[in-house]
Amino acid sequence: MKKWTLSLLTLVLVLVLAACGSNNAANNGAAGNTAGDTSAAEGNAADAGNQTAAEPVKLVVGATVPHADILKFIAPKLKEEGVELEVKEYTDYVQPNVQLYEKELDANYFQHQPYLDEQNAQNGFDLVSVVGVHVEPFGAYSNKYKATEEIPDGAKVAIPNDPTNGGRALLLLQKQGLIKLKDEAGITATQKDIVENPKNLKIIEADAAMLPRQLAEVDLALINTNYALEAKLNPTKDALFIEDKDSPYTNILVARPDNKDSEAIQKLAKALTSDEVRTFINDTYQGALVPVF
Question: Lipidated positions for S-diacylglycerol cysteine (predicted)?
C-alpha cells in the first residue's frame, strides 16, 4: 500500500512539473514573439524616419520686369508641386538667351517670338517657345507733348536698335500716319523702308533699355512696356499712342529642345497660364499687360 501511494505521488509530481514547464515555454514563446514584433515595428519606424521626401526640382529662369514679378507670384504654387523656382533678373535682352543656350538657365521669360527667331538666326541658337503668356502693347512716350498732333516737324524720335523691336516701332509710327513704309516691309522693317516722312522726323536708334532715360533728350520715344514700367511709366495712361491689344507680339516662355518637355518645365508652363495668373496680370497691370490664354 505504501509502495502504491509513493508511486502515485511521484506520478502526480511529474505531471505538475511537466505542466509548469509547458506553461513557461508558452510564456517565453509569447514574450519572444512580442519582442520580435516590437523589434520589427521599431525597425520599420527607423526605416520610415530614414526616408525623406523627394528633393524638389530646381529651375533657374531668366526674366526682365514685369516677367520676373509674375514668376515670383507663382513660385509658392510651384514649390507645392515639387519645383523650386529661382528667378534671375536681367536688364537687357541679350544675356537671357545666351545663358539659356549655354545651360546656365533652364528657361527664360522676357521676349516675343519675332525677337526669338531673330536671335536664333543671328547667333545659331536653337531655343524654342514653350507657351505664350501675355502681350505688352508697345507705346510711344513724350515729356514734351500730350498728343500725336502736337509732334512738330523735324522732331527727334527714338526707337529700339534691335531689328524686331525697331521694325515694330516703325510699324506703329506708320499706323499713326507719321511715316509710310514700303508695302513689303514687315516686322523687320528698317529706316531704309521709309518711303514717306511728311514731318521729316529724325529717327534715332538706341538700346531698348536706354530709351526711358532719353525721354528728356528727344521729342518722342517708342519704348517696350517692360522698360516703361521700370521707369514708372503707365502705358495705358502715359503713352501718346499704343499698340492694339491684339498685338501679335506675345511674350513667351522659352526653353531648349533638350528640356522643353520635362515635367518641371511643363509645370512652369501650366502655372504661367493658370486662372490665378490671368487674374494677377489683369489686376496688377490694368491693361499694360494682356493675358493671351
Answer: 20
